[in-house]
Amino acid sequence: MLSKLFARHRRERVAAELYVKLVEQARSPAFYTACGVPDTLDGRFEALALHAFLLFHRLKGEAAPAPDFAQALFDHMFSDMDLSLREIGVTDFSIGKKVKAMGRGFYGRIVGYDRGLAAADPEELEAALRRNLYGTVEPAPGQVRAVAAYLRGEVAGLAAQPVAALLAGEVRFGPAPEMVEAA
User: What does the alpha-carbon distance between residue 144 and residue 142 come to, in Å, rounded to a whole number?
Assistant: First the structure.
C-alpha cells in the first residue's frame, strides 16, 4: 500500500517536471514571431495544447505505467490551467466551466491532430492547425506549413526517444521553426 502511494507521488512529481519542459517548449519565442502563433492567452493555450498532444501521442498505446503517467501529466496540466485562470481573476463560480471547456477543446485538438497526422493529404493537418493553433488569426501559408513540418518532425523525434526516458521526465524537443518560407 505504502509503495503504491510513493509510486503515485513520484509519478506526479515527474509529470510536473515534464510539464515544465513542455511549457518551456511551447513558449519558445519563434512560435510567436516566425510562426505567427498569436501571443495571447488563447495562442499560448494552443501552443501548450500542441506540445501536450505530442507527448500524449507518444505515450498512447504504451504499456503500464505509461497510461498512469499520461493521466498524471494531464491532471497536472489542467490543475495548472485552473491556477492560471484564478491568477488572472476568473471567479471561482466560472472556473469549473472554463476548465471543462478547455478539456473538451483539448480532446478535440487531439482528435484533429491525430487525424491530420494519419491523413494522406498534408492539407488535413494544416487545416487542423488553422482551426486550432491559428483559430483567432489568419496565418501565412508558409507559417502553417512550417508548424505542420515541425509537428511531424517532433512526432518522429519523440518516437525515437525511449518511453522510459519520458517516464523519468526526460524529453528532447527540436527547435521551433525560426525561418518560415513566405508562401
Answer: 5
Residue 69 located in a structural domain: yes
Residue 112 lies in a domain: yes
Asked if the structure places residue 181 within a domain, the reply is: no
Residues 121-154 pLDDT 10s: 999 999 999 999 999 999 998 999 999 999 999 9
Report the C-alpha gap between 154 and 168 in whole angstroms: 19
pTM of the predicted protein model = 0.91
Q: How far apart are the first and last CA of the chain?
A: 59
Residue-number span of the structural domain to which 41 is assigned: 2-167
Number of domains in the chain: 1
How far is CA 107 from each of CA 75, 77, 132, 146, 153, rounded to the nearest angstrom?
13, 13, 12, 23, 22
User: Do the Cβ atoms of 32 and 39 come closer than 8 Å?
Assistant: yes
The grid coordinates of residue 141 equal: 501559408
